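JOB MANIFEST
job_type = single_chain_structure
chain_count = 1
residues = 203
[input]
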Amino acid sequence: MRIIHALLGIAAGCLLGSAAIVAAQTAPPKPQTHVRAAGSASPYLALATVHDLMGAIIDPASKVVFGAVSSVDTPAGTKEKAPGSDAEWAVVRRNALLMVEAANLLMIPGRHIAPPELAKVHKEGELPPVEIEARVGRDRTAWNEFAAGFRQAAIGAVRAAEARKPEAFGPVNEAIDTACENCHLRFWYPEQEELLKNAPKPK
């Protein structure tokens, strides 16, 4: 009789153990604590302002790209300028890449237009940075679309430099200039929405 009771106890223990294993296997996994929840703060730190990005990256890089290929009339005739070596083309490509990545940086949320000391400083005919930032906040979708248009135009410069095609830089530079001006019409210049509607689109 004792042997029977012992065997029943062992059997019950095995059943309980099996049930616990099955429950552990079928139970939904616990959420991982290191996964960022939807709606939580951005992982990016936008320390530089748009003013900083323009001065440190976009303006100097665009000057290299715009100046890479040119045609100048002189008393001796037309003088053509274009990169002539792999190293010179590499410089143009590198600066075009900087423009592409700067466009990505422009789309990072939380970036201010200018530092506090320049928040109200502006040229005649332009909105002060504090008002530009308010406009961007009201229409972030449009801001990102303009930045993406600038990025696509800059990619054209990267491809033209990689292909060593001086003749491609006329259309490429026009597309970059158009992308920049469209953004400025929307956010920098007051009451210019009508001009923007009729502005050419980057190709």
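[summary]
The mean pLDDT is 82.
Residues 51 and 156 are 24 Å apart (CA to CA).
exit_status = 0
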